[in-house]
Design goal:
A hairpin with a 4-residue loop joins β25 and β26. The strands form nine sheets. Strands 1, 2, 3, 6, 7, 8, 18, 24 and 27 form a nine-stranded antiparallel beta sheet that branches. The protein folds into two domains: 309 residues, Beta-galactosidase, Chain A, domain 5 (Distorted Sandwich), CATH 2.70.98; 93 residues, Immunoglobulin-like (Sandwich), CATH 2.60.40. The N terminus is likely disordered. 8% of the residues lie in helices and 42% in strands. The protein is globular, with a radius of gyration of 23 Å. By secondary structure, it is mainly beta.
């Protein structure tokens, strides 16, 4: 929680940043739709205005971990976008006062629509509740007409639940749309004209174990509804990390893992006590990117490097300091777009040397985006705890492979279940496992050693029909023969693989 002095400082900074006219602007007096996502150890919020992890009702922290503990690790998060339109800078951010509004942007008329439509809300569905309940919407209400994805069982192009059903990658699945287009008449010295973007957000969480039990997944479809192309376009996730108390946090980046993270600077936090957790943000997928999805990441504090207007935000969204100067790594004396990239566990490299209130951001550069083109931007927020504050950083780094491991490679419905031979085989230390699911249901994929001992659970959750690929990392295992087994309600198959180090 933020103490009183920090809260007053931040409130003052925000007031200076957004200005009184923006606080009272019409777009920010709207009633937004907000729903919890709490399928696993995390309890947080999804809002149809680009904001995450925020308790709007009392303007307090919204990312609770562990669920039910009353302890919070994130105060607020949100989507940030930037580009140029005819060389004019455009920036839209879900900061403390979001610049997005529920609804969509009509391309033909170049006008925003839907902010007063009660159907432009946050939808929430479960694979176990086709008819819904007090918390979940029925499958029949899934807003396919708004762009929500669904599984077409009979391939006729018509949504016919319950034989057809919503895209459900988790135990809880949420969808909403929003736009920055309502800002056309609200420009001031600190705010640009909008990109005229329409965003479709699909979020999900898995009721599972291990690292996935502490992760929330976000898939952002960012559509250019402007009649003019975007140039120098970028997208990012920003977060105000408050791991318990806000006065003792630090931040760091790891370009090899496409990650930015926050952690506690001391081993004892006033809220979390001994060995407080660390929280990480990963870019899982970004259009036009292959292995390195993140192009930049950073951390800043209240009085240092914090962007205070749209120009400074634009710079930050392109991997620069808010002054427009590049970050320079003091260890290597070279320019970098990943400051504070050292390893706090080993006390090596460029480290965050002070502690206090911390903000982090991670994003990707997309260049030119034509009218009606869509950018796919997938991110993961996750948290974990080690035996010390620094080993919590090591813990979340160890979780990266697991939380990004499952990829749906096709939504085409296979004729039956299948488990393919891993490739490469033999392998060292990673290999890929592919399998097909012919109907919605619970799926288990586990790895065993030669004695039949379970060594790793790769999948243990409800899954949609489709084809999937999972990466298996045997870095912590010895050379030898291993077996992987796929189990569903009506199918079971085992295959052999060989790890050679």
């Amino acid at each position: 929680m933020k103490n009183l002095l920090i809260s007053i400082f931040i409130a003052s900074a925000i007031f200076i940043f957004i200005g009184l006219s923006e606080i009272n602007s019409k777009e920010n007096s709207l009633s937004f739709s907000i729903k919890k996502i709490d399928a696993n150890n995390v309890n947080t919020t999804i809002i149809n205005n680009g904001s995450l992890d925020r308790n709007i009702s009392n303007t307090s922290a919204g990312f609770e971990w562990l669920k039910g503990s009353g302890k919070y690790a994130v105060y607020s998060s949100g989507l940030w976008l930037s580009c140029k339109v005819n060389d004019s800078i455009r920036v839209s951010t879900a900061f403390y006062n979001t610049q997005f509004t529920p609804g969509y942007f009509d391309y033909l008329t170049q006008t925003p629509m839907g902010k007063d439509d009660p159907l432009r809300k946050v939808y929430k569905v479960s694979p176990l509740l086709p008819n819904g309940d007090a918390e979940f919407d029925p499958w029949s209400a899934w807003p396919v007409n708004q762009g929500a994805e669904w599984i077409d069982i009979n391939h006729n192009g018509v949504y016919e639940p319950p034989s057809d059903y919503p895209l459900m990658k988790g135990s809880q699945n949420l969808f909403c749309t929003f736009t920055d287009g309502y800002r056309d008449t609200a420009i001031n010295s600190r705010k640009t004209l909008p990109l005229r973007a329409e965003i479709h957000l699909y979020a999900y969480a898995k009721e599972t174990n291990s690292c996935n039990a502490n992760a929330i997944y976000y898939e952002w479809k960012i559509i250019n509804k402007n009649i003019t192309q975007w140039t120098d376009m970028s997208s990012a996730i920003w977060s105000d990390v408050d791991i318990g108390s806000s006065i003792n946090d630090k931040g760091g980046t790891d370009s090899s893992l496409n990650m930015v993270y926050g952690y506690n600077g001391t081993n004892t936090d006033p809220i979390y006590g001994t060995a407080p957790p660390a929280v990480g943000y990963i870019i899982k997928e970004a259009s036009r990117h292959n292995s390195n999805k993140a192009d930049f990441a950073a951390r800043w504090s209240c009085g240092f490097d914090c962007p205070l207007d749209s120009l400074q935000e634009y710079r930050v969204l392109h991997g620069l300091r808010n002054t427009g100067n590049p970050w320079i790594n003091p260890i290597t004396n070279k320019n970098t777009m990943f400051p504070y990239s050292g390893d706090p566990v080993n006390s090596s490299g460029w480290l965050d040397s002070t502690q206090g209130d911390r903000y982090v951001i991670i994003g990707s550069l997309f260049g030119t985006v034509a009218s009606l083109d869509t950018i796919n931007f997938k991110t993961i927020t996750f948290i974990n705890r080690g035996t010390t504050n620094l080993l919590s950083v090591e813990k979340i780094k160890d979780c990266v492979n697991e939380v990004v491991s499952i990829n749906q490679i096709s939504q085409n419905i296979p004729d039956g279940y299948r488990l393919s031979q891993n490739y490469p085989n033999p392998f060292n230390p990673t290999t890929n496992l592919e399998f097909g699911i012919s109907e919605l249901g619970f799926v288990s994929l586990k790895v065993y050693d030669i004695l039949g001992n379970e060594v790793m659970t790769l999948v243990n959750e409800n899954m949609n029909a489709g084809s999937y690929e999972v990466k298996f990392d045997g870095s912590n295992l010895t050379s030898g023969v291993y077996f992987y087994k796929l189990n569903t309600a009506s199918f079971s198959q085992t295959k052999r693989m060989l790890l050679l180090k």
